Amino acid sequence: MKKVAIIGAGISGLFIANLFKRNPNYEIVIYEKNHSISVEEGYGIQLSVNCIKLLNEIGFDKLQNNEKFNPEKINFYSNDNSNKICELDITEFNSEDCKYTTLKRSSLINFLKTDLEGLIRTGYNISKIDQQDKKIKVSFENAEVKECDCLIISDGVFSKAKSLISKDEAKPKYNNTLAIRGILNKSPEKFDSKNIALFLDSDFHHVVYPVSPNGDLNFIAIMKYQLSIEEQKNYSLFSDNLFIKKVLEKFPSRNKSFLSDLKELKIFPVFVSKNFYKLQSSNVHLIGDAFFAFPPSFAQGASQSIEGAYELFKSIENNTESNFFKNRVKKTKMVNTRSKFNQFAFHLSDPLSIYFRNLFLKRLVKNKNFLESYLGKIYRN
Fold first, then answer.
1. How far, CA to CA in Å, does 208 sit from each of 76, 86, 196, 287?
2. How far is CA 124 from CA 23, 28, 116, 145, 185, in A?
3. Using CA atoms, how far apart are residues 214 and 188, in angstroms rounded to an integer?
4. What is the tens place of the pLDDT at every residue in 73-91?
5. What is the pLDDT of residues 183-203, one digit of tens each?
6. pTM (2 decimals)?
7. Contact present, 109 and 37 (Cβ < 8 Å)
8. What is the DSSP string of 191-222?
9. 299-337 burial string, b = 16+ CB within 10 Å, else e?
10. Nearest CA among 355, 319, 265, 294 for reference residue 172
């Protein structure tokens, strides 16, 4: 029996733990630095078809229907006049059992940790990693030392474990954007409570989408915003009321009408990966945002975390770990390129550029060859 240690109880860490738990050849433990697992109650998440198929292998299809939703369209709007530009039919990528899905992040986390009772250790903040022969010793700040045969690092974009093992060579960079998140408990008439609404504006875009059949809506906005190096490091800044007020004042005026409807508003800087970091050890691996953090303009963060975790599990199970990094980098580059392009296209400010963007959007959403190339290669495994 091989001992597997997983650092981080986020989506990718919990998912791969579920996969290992089904194989009696592995003994797994998850170490989470916080004293409880963050579920971010109420906030939404989008899961494309490429990961629903994988989640169904551990019983996601049996999750209560009132906890998840299957939107059929992405409606594009121009924020300067709120006119609808076009709509994208995302059901084209669905199968009978696997459909594009939205739900509350808390519902997904609670589902993933259901069968992991006794395997999650909270309050374990990693301090040191030692590799000796084929064994790995992991030291924690509580003075405990654990030994394992395989170490999986899944503790987010600011991964301390990744920093330790790379000697601080793999730091993320600020994406020059802020994310603004909130919950719309009641659906204002202006929003479609059955589909995803994407509003495009100058240096700003926001998305509103349902997270359950009863009309609960999730709000996420991405705003271009410059921060100094000092501000990027000052985490208390993003909960400061004066800073929040300053950011909200920069909202396009046509969006301010529904700010009063937002609950649980949070603002945080977006950090992304600068490059890929290849670990030298064959029994230490990165998944999730620790592997690579994307710009949040393609709604693929969670889906790629799940897909990457599945690929790593299969590689370890089949003793083909050496192929994992190369294969994951190939898919990740594809997603990252599209994410950066989306953000560029969504944030155009020149009227002529916007005119041609909208013209192209209207044509591209109906072009099956383009959609299969741009979305199909990402949405399907």
1. 11, 16, 6, 28
2. 25, 15, 17, 10, 35
3. 13
4. 999 998 766 789 999 999 9
5. 986 655 667 788 999 999 999
6. 0.94
7. yes
8. S-TTSEEEEEETTEEEEEEESSTT--EEEEEE
9. bbbbbbbbbbbbbbbebbeeeebeebbeebeebbeebbe
10. 294
